[in-house]
């Protein structure tokens, strides 16, 4: 009985001789990683793909351990033909079969999540489905560098992968197949399976010749340039208790038996948040921008530091999207003032309160905070590039 899961079978057992001299194309570098790594990650990043079978050439099986280290990847030794390699992968799954399987050529590293989704969706109502692009160019027959005839392009498509199937159907089709096949749709059709066509993707090119590497790299780099630059920074600060009758935390005066000592107003919360923003920008910390040796900052309102960090982020093209602050102390109690602190930080940063978190914890009476000697703060800031 097939378990209701979806498996991806990636065929990477070919030698890729048309790609030019050198190592097989799946092991060549593309945008800083191997072709195989790009293809594998395209499926591993999909929540709808439960596991992966990777079919390698027998001579490449010494690299299997690097892939089986991932709990969702199994490696199988391939055969002498593509069909034999696919059959080996299918048979490896036969004792614990999935409901659906997507068979993909390793040489298509630019496959998109949207395309994979379309194939999976089509299997809800079809036993087989595959992506394809309609042929829009005129088709000629030729011989000896001369046009010898024309061919009607109506109803013709360029086949792509992944090609998806109900597992039992494609396994039976491969077991009945004699000899090689161009792809798994050919195997399925020979067994009488009807195959649904889903929309393909021009970016889903197959690396065949040497010139295809440059095209694939351009596609991957274009996609990377469209991903927002997301930064996270951490900030940590401590201040000791000293004379006074209140402490300033996140711009809010909180009554207490002591104050906090420091060169500025010793607002440990705003200091930690400011340092988190500086950290996300790789711009050091408060001390570099506002040296404690400079008397201009003696007793300064720490909102000045937070404003500077915010404006620096904006100048660098980043928006602050979220701040999370933890205050660590035995006293004073933070809970009654947390909402006011969140509101003040949100106001300074131009954020909704839903994007600002202020919470507190104790250190279980351990360390300097546990002994009531001061307050510590830990902050994380998330920035997104424009």
Automatic annotation (TrEMBL):
CDD domains in alphabetical order: CDP-ME_synthetase (cd02516), MECDP_synthase (cd00554)
PANTHER family from the UniProt entry: 2-C-METHYL-D-ERYTHRITOL 2,4-CYCLODIPHOSPHATE SYNTHASE, CHLOROPLASTIC
Summary of the function given for this chain in its UniProt record: Bifunctional enzyme that catalyzes the formation of 4-diphosphocytidyl-2-C-methyl-D-erythritol from CTP and 2-C-methyl-D-erythritol 4-phosphate (MEP) (IspD), and catalyzes the conversion of 4-diphosphocytidyl-2-C-methyl-D-erythritol 2-phosphate (CDP-ME2P) to 2-C-methyl-D-erythritol 2,4-cyclodiphosphate (ME-CPP) with a corresponding release of cytidine 5-monophosphate (CMP) (IspF).
Lineage: Bacteria, Pseudomonadati, Pseudomonadota, Alphaproteobacteria, Rhodobacterales
Keywords in alphabetical order: Isoprene biosynthesis, Lyase, Metal-binding, Multifunctional enzyme, Nucleotidyltransferase, Transferase
Name the record gives this protein: Bifunctional enzyme IspD/IspF
Ranges for region 2-C-methyl-D-erythritol 4-phosphate cytidylyltransferase: 1-230
Family label: In the C-terminal section; belongs to the IspF family.
Recorded GO MF terms: 2-C-methyl-D-erythritol 2,4-cyclodiphosphate synthase activity; 2-C-methyl-D-erythritol 4-phosphate cytidylyltransferase activity; metal ion binding
Catalytic activity as recorded in UniProt: 4-CDP-2-C-methyl-D-erythritol 2-phosphate = 2-C-methyl-D-erythritol 2,4-cyclic diphosphate + CMP; 2-C-methyl-D-erythritol 4-phosphate + CTP + H(+) = 4-CDP-2-C-methyl-D-erythritol + diphosphate
Record-listed 4-CDP-2-C-methyl-D-erythritol 2-phosphate binding positions: 237-239, 263-264, 285-287, 361-364, 368, 371
Gene: ispDF
Biological process according to GO: isopentenyl diphosphate biosynthetic process, methylerythritol 4-phosphate pathway; terpenoid biosynthetic process
Enzyme Commission code(s) on record: 2.7.7.60, 4.6.1.12
Keyword match Transferase: yes
Binding site for a divalent metal cation: 237, 239, 271
Pathway membership: Isoprenoid biosynthesis; isopentenyl diphosphate biosynthesis via DXP pathway; isopentenyl diphosphate from 1-deoxy-D-xylulose 5-phosphate: step 4/6; Isoprenoid biosynthesis; isopentenyl diphosphate biosynthesis via DXP pathway; isopentenyl diphosphate from 1-deoxy-D-xylulose 5-phosphate: step 2/6
Organism: Palleronia pontilimi
